[in-house]
Amino acid sequence: MSIRKSLAAAAAVAVLALTACSGGGGGSTTSPAGDGSRGDLLRVGVINDVSSWDPAQAAPSADLLEMERAIYDTLLLTDLEGEVIAGLAEEWAYVNDERTELELKIREGVTFSDGTALDAEAVKINLDNFMAGNGPMAAQLGGVQAVEAADAQTVRLTLGAPNPALLFNLTRQAGLIASPAGIESGSIATDPVGTGPYVLDAASVRGSQYVMTAREDYWQPDYQMWNSLNFRVLADPTARANALTSKQIDVTLVQPGQIEQVEAQGAEIATWTASVMGLILMDRNGAMAPELEDVRVRQAINHAFDRDLILEQAGKGLGEKTAQLFGTGTTAYVEELDEAYPYDPEKARALLAEAGYADGFTVPMAFAPPGEFVAPFITQQLGDIGITVEKVSITPQQFSSSISGGEYAMGWTVQGLDPAWVTVQRNILPESAYNPFGTTNDDVAALIDQTRNAGDADDAGEELNRYLVDNAWFAPWYRVGASYAYNPDVVSEIRNIVDYSSVPLLFGYVPAK
After folding, report:
1. Distance CA 129, CA 56 (A)
2. What are phi and psi of 340, to 5 degrees?
3. Poorest-pLDDT segment among 33-42, 48-57, 165-174, 387-396
4. Which CATH class is domain 274-481?
5. Which of 7, 114, 244, 252 has its CA 20 to 30 A from that of 271?
C-alpha cells in the first residue's frame, strides 16, 4: 500500500471511531517484528553521532531516529506496509470532523527502564517538552496548541489548525517518550531513560559506539530481535565498508560504488528507493547571498546540473532523476516535474545574465563525510555557469545544524521520501528546520493552507509542489537508491523496509539461524 493510501486510511478510520490496533496493521494483534527468537549481538555501522538524547532535540537523521527508538518507544508505529499502527498509544481518534482534537489511549502496564509507570501525564510532559524545546523537528507538532491528560490513560491534543501528518509524526521524533524525571532534571540529554526495548550500557563511548542491552521486562518482546545492539559511529564510507568486510560490524549503509567490493567479500545487499538528493536553496530572501533572491538565479542553478551524469557517476544508476522534492508515493507528486529543469548550461548562463550576474558570483557551501563525494559535481557544474562554490569542510556532527541554523545560503541534502505534509513541515513552513531563513510569501502561505486543509484528497499539495519547482526553492537531482550491506552469517535478511525510511527499521534485521 502506498504512503498516500495508508495515511489516508488511518486518518479516515480515526475520525469515525477510536481505532484499536494492537501492534500490527489492519487491526492485527501480531507485531511487525519477528517470531520471538533472538540473535545475540547486532553491530550496526552508522553515519551520525548523537548530540543529545533529549527527544526535543532529536535531529532529522534517520539513523539517529532508529538509535533513539531502541531506547524510547513512540506513541504510534508503522507496520510493514507503512500503515500507522498502535505503539504506546493502543487506541487513537480524531474526535471532531475538523481533525483538531486528537485523543490517544495510553497502553497500561508499561514501565520506563527505571521502573516508573507510563501514564497520560508522562506523555503530556513529553509532548510539552518537545514543543517547548523548539528543536530541529519541532514542526512535527505544528498546530498543537494544548496537551491535556484527560484521565490517567487518555491524552488529548487540541490543534489550532489540522496537521495532516500528525499521526505519522507520532511514529517519529515527536512520538519518542522519555522519562519525565529525566526531562524535568535535564539529565535526559546525556542519560536516556525510556520505555523502549533496550537500555544504554555503560560501555558506550560518545562519538565511538553505543552499546544497548535488551530489557527483560519489555512490554513487546517480539520487537527485541537481538539480545544486544552495538551502534558504531563511522562517518567515512570507506571505513564503514572496511569494517563490514573485516567483520567488525554486521550491517551498514554503503555507497553505490562500493557494492561490488563488499559483495566480493561475501556481503549481501538490500536496496530500495527512499530518499531524494540535491540542493536546498535556502537563502531565497538574499539575506546572506543576495543573488539567490532572484528566481532566475535559482532557476539557473537547476539548469546547471546534469542529473543523468550525477545519477550515473555518483549514484551508479541506482535511482531516478527528478527536479521535485516530493516522492512518487505522495499526494503532492507531479510526474512531469521530474523533467522540469533539463540540463542546459547555456540557458543557465543566460538566466544569470538577465538577473545581472553575467560575471557570476561566489557562494560558500559546507560538506561533511560521507557527502563530500558530491562536492566535485557541485563545484564543477556550477562553476561551468560562473558560480564559484567555496568548499567548507565540517564534521558530520555539525552538518544538520549548519543547515537548520542558517549558517550557509544553500546546502546539499539527502531527505526521506516522506508523506507530503512531512516534507512541508521539514522544508517549507516558516519555522521548518530546512527553511532557516523563514522564507514565505502570500502565495506560499495560501498554498500551505490549501494543502493543510485538503484532507484525504489524492492531489493534496500538487499546486504547492508546482509553485516550489517553478520558483526553484530547491534543486533536487535524483531519488536515491539506498544500499544496505550485511553479513549473511549474522543477518539472514533485512525486511520491513518502507519507502519513506532511508534506513531499515530497528526490527527489520532478521537474525541468521
Report:
1. 6
2. -65, -30
3. 33-42
4. alpha beta
5. 7
251: nearest Cα among 34, 493, 487, 503: 487
What is the three-class DSSP state of 353?
Answer: helix
Paired strand residues for 329:
none
pLDDT for 371 equals: 79
pTM equals 0.78
Say if 3-237+487-511 and 274-481 have the same CATH topology. Answer: no
What is the Cα–Cα distance from 150 to 18, expressed in whole angstroms? 15
Residue ranges per structural domain of the chain: 3-237+487-511, 274-481
Cβ density class 6-34: b for 16+ within 10 Å, e for less? bbbbbbebbbeeebebebbbeeeeebbbb
Confidence (pLDDT) at 36: 60
Q: In the structure grid, which three cell numbers stand for residue 106, read together?
A: 495510553
How many CB atoms are located within 10 Å of the residue 266 CB? 12
Query: How many other C-beta atoms can be found within 10 angstroms of the C-beta atom of residue 445?
Result: 12
Grid cell 501525564 is found at 121
In this prediction, residue 35 carries a pLDDT of 60
Omega into 376 within 30° of 0, i.e. cis? no
- Classify 430 as helix, strand or coil: coil
The CATH number of the structural domain formed by 3-237+487-511 is 3.40.190.10
- Write down the mean pLDDT value for the chain: 89
Nearest to 437 by CA among 424, 425, 448, 427: 427
How buried is residue 305: exposed, middle or buried, by Cβ count under 10 Å (0-12/13-18/19+)?
buried
Phi, psi (5° rounding) for residue 260? -60, -40
User: Does residue 396 have a pLDDT over 70?
Assistant: yes
How many whole angstroms from its chain centre is CA 213? 25
In whole angstroms, what is the distance from residue 273 CA to residue 50 CA? 25
Query: ∠143-281-348 over CA atoms, to 5°?
Result: 145
Q: What does the radius of gyration of the chain's CA atoms come to, in whole angstroms?
A: 22
pLDDT the model gives residue 29: 34
Q: What is the pLDDT of residues 169-212, one digit of tens each?
A: 999 999 999 999 999 999 999 999 999 999 999 999 999 999 99
Residues sharing a CB contact under 8 Å with residue 167, sequence separation 6 or more, in sequence order = 7, 10, 11, 14, 76, 84, 92, 102
- The HSE-up count of residue 83 (CA atoms within 13 Å, CB side) is 22
